Amino acid sequence: MRSQRRLSLIFFLSLYYGLIAQAEVHRLQGAHVHGEARLDIAQEGSDLILEFYSPAMDILGFEHEPADETERKMAQEAEKRLRAADTLFKLPENAECKLTLAEVKAGGEMHEAGKGRQEEGGHRDYEAQYAFRCSGEFPAGIEVLLFDAFPSLHRIHAQLAGPDGQKSVELSASENRIEFRQ
Question: What DSSP designation does 30 have?
Answer without folding.
Answer: T
